Amino acid sequence: MKKLHSLIKACMTSDMNLFKIKAKKGKKSSIAVVLFITLCLMFTIWSNANILFEKLSPMHLQSVVLSFFVFLTSVLLIVEGIYKAGPLIFNCKDDQLLLSLPIKRRTVLFVRIFKFYIFELLFNSLFIIPLIIAYIRWAEVLDWTFFLTSFIMIFTLPIIPIIISCVIGAIIFGFSSHFKHKSIIQIVVSIVFLVVALYLSFTVQNIFNYIAENAETINNSITKIYYPAGIYASLAIKFNILDLLVFILINISLFSISIFVLSKFYFKINSRLKNVTTSKKTNIEDLKIKSNSITKALIKKELNTFLRTPVLIINSGFALVLFIIISIITVIKFDSLIPIISDQNGLNLSKDLIMNNLSIVILILISITSYMTSITNSLISLEGRSIVILKSLPIKVKTILMSKIYTCLLITTPVLVIGDIILFIKFKTNIFESILLIILSVLIPLVSHFIGLLINLKHPKLDAENSTEVVKQSTSSFISVMLGMILLVLSIGIVIKLATLMNSILVLVISVVIYILIDSILYWILTNKGVKEFNQLSI
Amino acid sequence: MIEIKNVTKKYGNKTALDNVSFTVNDGDIFAFIGHNGAGKTTLIKAIVGIHDFDDGDILIDGKSIKTDPVLCKKMMAFVPDNPETYEHMKAIDYINFICDMYDVDNDTREKNIKKYATLFEMQDKLNDTIDSYSHGMKQKIVLISALAHDPKILIMDEPFVGLDPKAVFDIKKILNEMVKEKKIVFYSTHILDVAEKLCSRVAIIKNGKLVKSGSMKEIKGDKSLEKVFMELEEK
Asked: Does the distance separating the beta carbons of A394 and B102 come in below 8 Å?
């Protein structure tokens, strides 16, 4: 037991740095930002739960909201879990160390799944705690048994999603481990899951309305499909200690059986994933020895890093893929999209306003894509220990930093321009507006790239165990994603306000001028303050 | 020439380097020795411009690493203790990348890559990605990329760790060739008998302070380098 405790402590320490109480001065501000954003997210979930409770409480169907949220949270946990299963379970860097220690292999697997459980528990709490608070307001009968049930639910609900994620992860990694290009297979399979998640997020508004109309039928289906969702709702209405004990027992049994079964083939998958295939012996005379300029060589190196990091491709590619999909959908079904855009809460956009400002619609789409595509927020952290290579090279730091920006532009610009052209053809945008929009397709992502890099320089994570820790769990990515959201809302608000005051060409011209100004300021900050931050990086 | 002038480096309250001064002349093979945590890697990283330092200066052929870092780095090659590379790159792409950074022309890089890859028996493995290599092979790739741009000064941190005996023998040969060309080799090591045979000059550091520096003959006299080092450690 002492061994297990030490093992868990050692494995958790590196991952939980963000939550250390004895934080350094600089870290305190980032903890405050993370806490603030977490509270904002919980408030949003609480508000959405209240909307559903309000719709369903006249029919005395509050429990449906409980089952629906538990179901939805579990789906999210599974999707998020598939991302995390890679680095936390299947692609661990500490294999060599742990497997050489005198501990059972099953213990190693348990510790890894436990670490996974802690992450999923935190994620689960983000959704379930606001739901519980909202339920307190709308519940018809409320006593201590609800709080006991909820407390147990917070800890037990992540278990089944973890098991499902591990099984899907085992399929993805087990399948890809048979191939030479493992990361490509992982990207393809993950994109399939991403497309499904994308489809679900598009239909979420319809799902809400459908639930309100068919609450009882939905409740029946969810509770039948997903046992924990049903049991929570049923225990909230009528508490039964036996049901609760059975539920706990089922979870513990499933967890134990999963560890037992997974341990049978887990280490085989893991060792196969670490097998690196080598090419045939090559003749030195046939090798490609070719020189490049410094910037081109740095860009090639950055592109290589990007293409070898599946989690970064999937994370940053989401908005870019979305932009192309929206552009194509707009071409096919624009007429049916107009009412959806004009009906958006709080925007009050008339159909005429949209039709007269189609270039503004494109501008908004470019903004959404740009602010949601933050690649640079991980590029410094991904250097890891090899940052010493860059720091010892005879090149200016400004060149290193700008090469990262150019690489990101090389990734985002072609996609945005292709989407632009599709939309220009559909909307018959005039040449002048088209040129302005193409310029904005470079200027707006540039803001996002500069900000991401500056944040990563301020909050580097050079000692990360794997790329997922950098891309999905670092302070830098969290702050830049949230800041991107704020900037997005601000920029859309300003553009819409301007569009009501002047014609679209003038709005585009003003946008170009403003963005040139912002980019120039950010360039100045990066090449001065950013260079200093880079020089202070150490591991 | 490398001139280390009153260099002080602090990590919070801990002084990692305390007013360290010495000179490395052209044509020297210079051994830098000390116990673990004495400050060897800190000084090496300061010389090659990876770490800043709080006081003093380091001059490379009269140019300060603080004010002219690019010019200074261009004269040097650095081989770290742990072979840091871009693991996802093919070895040949990595070496080409380093050569690009040092503006090495095609003829020179082709000549040097072939020469050193053949010497280290890596000529038929350069098309593999570095993550498929053993520790020693990675170290060889770092050495090939360091030597491919004909550096005037070679700085190495524990260069012999993980290398096979033949590679160690070959490196010693290369270092001697460099010295004949009046180039500088500066390296840290714990293998004192190799340092004693190979190096013309030596500096010993203890708890961030330089305790001895000079020619190998001056420092060791009639004793072995190991004995001198142990005596200094016990003081």
From this structure: yes
